[in-house]
Amino acid sequence: MRVLYIGGSYKGVSDCFSEKIQSDKNNPETYDDLFGLYETQHYNYFEHGYCDEFIKLGNSASYIISDEPVLLNAWAREHMSTQKEFSLNEMALHQIIDYAPDLIMFCNVDAELVRMIKEQCASVKRIIGVVGSAVLDSPIWEMFDAIISCAPETVEKIKKDGFKAFHVNHAFYAPIAENVDGIQGSADDGNIVFSGHVIKGNEFHDMRAHILEELIDNVNLKIYSPEYIIGNGEILKNTTMKVLYDISHSFQKTVLGRQINKLPGLNKAVKWKDRPESPVSRKLRKTMCAPVFGMDMFNTIAGASGTLNIHADSSPVFASNMRLFETTGVGGCLITDYKSNIADLFEPDSEIIVYKDEKECIEKCKWVLNHPEKALEIAIAGQKRCLKEHTYSNRMEDLKKALELII
Fold it and tell me: Do 2-171+392-406 and 174-230+280-389 fold alike per CATH?
């Protein structure tokens, strides 16, 4: 069987990758060299990890990044006509057709690319969607033969919507642990680290933002987030939208209001059901650092005194995100929010630190900073558990069971 994972990159990864290319002494230019550099940074270790496991089982397996312009353009220069310009999806499609997969594991939400694959890639027999916990309404779900998610809540939601769905936990890519710099606490800067998005609204990170706002007043905390790069223009646009909403809805039922709401801008704002959310908390943005990805992120986690994890609002019951395994896998001390299944994954306060609310989170973070030797013991125990039970070799057993019911 020929398996192709189609991944996407986080906001900010492309800029980070371009900087790595510029600083690389080997001056990579070919697709193979650029892809090799991309792989060493482990930006998309999820796809890489599963490809390794499929190959061990005797399959052909590879992955592409369908929204990474540097890689797509390099491949296009070597395999496609240079007489015209191609969109990212067109370049990705040609790469997919060239590989001729039987099975596609689709790890982003680009419905247009799925449609193009179905119409033009004759080799493909099954397309399986791979999603996280936050699932927005999209026509893409009905395009998949089945959907796999790390979050049990999401699996149940997708099933209720009438689609075939299966649960498989995230995992850690073990080779990363061999390449991190230093050990837990080696940075010795007396900080708890948080790395990740802080997106408000739509079942994303409202609770995360609330807890982080409480923490920055009480604990030495470094926040590395893609929201750091949100420009002033976007913030100004959001502020303007809030003003328009407030004006249009304040006078909505008055004669004056009906006249005001005919004005350009207000005539649209009056139809908005909800007041626009700020793209990022002002309080948090002031304390944010530039985001870190790939090995930069893993080295940051490995060297921190402790790493904070806060699940998205779309995961209210079960622990399921990547940071659980990323932090423990590289030997970091994980401080994570309590979920009903957390003890099935790690032993609380022995292999990881667990908190139930913002008050306890502050207390546990302070404890980690004040007891570095104990925190290191917990980090070592957590890494041992992760490398024993939470690698892609472990998860492949669960994925195989799901695929047997799909294919």
Answer: yes
Chain centre to alpha carbon of residue 131: 10
Measured distance CA(86)–CA(263) in Å, rounded: 41
Using 50, 70 and 90 to split pLDDT, how confident is the model at 391? very high
> Token pair 């059901």 is at which residue?
273
Which pLDDT score is estimated for 249?
53
Per-residue pLDDT at 187: 58
Measured at the alpha carbon of residue 103, what is the angle toward residues 174 and 35, in degrees to the nearest 5? 50
| CATH architecture of the domain with range 2-171+392-406 | 3-Layer(aba) Sandwich (3.40)
Confidence of residue 305 (pLDDT cuts 50, 70, 90): very high
pLDDT higher than threshold 80 for residue 395: yes
Residues with Cβ < 8 Å from 112, sequence gap 6 or more? 89
Would you mind telling me the total number of residues written for the chain in this entry? 407
Residue among 299, 303, 301 nearest 324 (CA): 301
Q: Which of 35, 375, 42 is nearest to 191 (CA)?
A: 375
Could you tell me the pTM of the whole model? Answer: 0.87
Nearest to 299 by CA among 334, 326, 335, 336: 326
63 pairs with which residues across the strands?
Answer: 5
174-230+280-389: CATH topology: Rossmann fold (3.40.50)
Q: CA-CA distances (angstroms) from residue 274 to 245, 265, 269, 279, 309?
A: 8, 16, 10, 14, 29
DSSP H or E run through 308:
strand 306-309
Assess contact for 321 and 170: CB atoms under 8 A.
yes
Domain coordinates in residue numbering, the chain = 2-171+392-406, 174-230+280-389, 232-269
Spatial strand order of the sheet with 288-289 comes to 288-289, 221-224, 192-195, 306-309, 334-337, 353-355
Residue of 134, 147, 156, 130 lying closest to 46 (CA atoms)? 130
State both tokens at 389.
């039970």
